[in-house]
């Protein structure tokens, strides 16, 4: 019984040892963007979530929140692509993640408006989400 328990704990610890999670954050006025990248071995999962309250220059617009999460693929040394299939459609939302030494920049495809409409956007518009240490 003790050997089995010890073996189970050792397997859990060895699996967790290879996991790493990085968080990135951008606050631009009343717009907040968060990126979470989790790497477990060769598997990479990414989540991008946004919470936008209208800035003063966006009078009359409505607040919005959106999230897209799925497996991400490495397409270059410092670039990942997160693709989320739009249910019931033959299209996908793609978010390109350009990693920098201090953060990340995001670019979304036009199809992402299915998940993030109105003033919400997964794109960082050239601004960098800062890596939280």
Question: How is the biggest beta sheet arranged?
Answer: 8 strands, antiparallel, barrel
Mean pLDDT: 88
Number of strands: 8
Oligomer: single chain
Give the DSSP E fraction (strand runs of 2 or more residues): over 45%
The strand order across the widest sheet is 1-2-3-4-5-6-7-8
The low-confidence runs, each spanning 5 or more residues with pLDDT under 50, are 4-8
Briefly note the structural class of the backbone.
Answer: mainly beta
Chart the SSEs and their pairings.
Blueprint: H1 2-17, E1 19-28, E2 31-40, E3 43-52, E4 64-76, E5 79-85, E6 92-99, E7 103-108, E8 129-132
Antiparallel strand pairs: 1-2, 1-8, 2-3, 3-4, 4-5, 5-6, 6-7, 7-8
Provide keyphrases for this structure.
133 residues; mainly beta; eight-stranded antiparallel β-barrel; 1 helix; 8 strands; 12% helix; globular
Précis, in short:
12% of the residues lie in helices and 51% in strands.
Describe this structure in words.
- By secondary structure, the protein is mainly β.
- Helices cover 12% and strands 51% of the residues.
- Strands 1-2-3-4-5-6-7-8 form an 8-stranded antiparallel beta barrel.
